[in-house]
Fold:
Amino acid sequence: MDLAANLQSVRQRIAAACQRAGRDPAAVTLLAVSKGQPPEMIGAAAGAGLLLFGENRVQEAKSKISQCPGPLRWHMIGHLQSNKCREAVSLFCMIQSVDSLPLAVEINQWAGHFAKTMPVLLEVNIAGESSKFGFSPEKLPAELPLLNSLPKLEIHGLMTMAPFSPDPERVRPVFRRLRQLQAECEKILGAPLPHLSMGMSGDFEVAVEEGATIIRLGTALFGPRRTARPRAEDGPD
Structure:
């Protein structure tokens, strides 16, 4: 596995997708999904220029963040249980997987406890898959004012996981719908929601064409995992 070559290839593909969509590649942030990767591999990725990493499980992140280079930034991207909110708020600089109002309330409480403001993304289950978590796109606008009223949360945008498909074009409508929902939510709030976290190793080019500002890549950078296929709630890459 040649991490540097993989990263170069990914960046070229991002640039090409941006060119097709008339976007600036600088507007797309690459998040490396480091689930299952040892600190040595994360250190190598940091040496190659990657600074943003995403973890799916709080316990795994807790065990290795301290073993990784200091200036890295860490996002929580997997399903977060309410009993892990305290640790998540202390470990991560953003929680991308806020998938319900009760979870948002819990995060807000712990952010207050730590005297910090927690940047978050709201996870939306665009395709309505029963195996995945997230707000319903039909119900999120109604819940948005309550979410926005939580004083220690900063809503920076939306996140979604598209259904798996060998043909990325089949999930383009999912990404397009998230972008449309972003615009609806901005009208409700009267403020911008700058981030759309969408697109993984199999479909990130389509996501970029549809407006992704954060793409979450694991396999495209680190190669196939040697472990079993992750559960849907783990946030596959």
Observations:
- The two ends are 17 Å apart (CA to CA).
- Residues 99 and 134 are 4 Å apart (CA to CA).
- Residues 3-223 form a domain with the TIM Barrel fold (CATH 3.20.20.10).
- Confidence is low (pLDDT under 50) at residues 228-234.
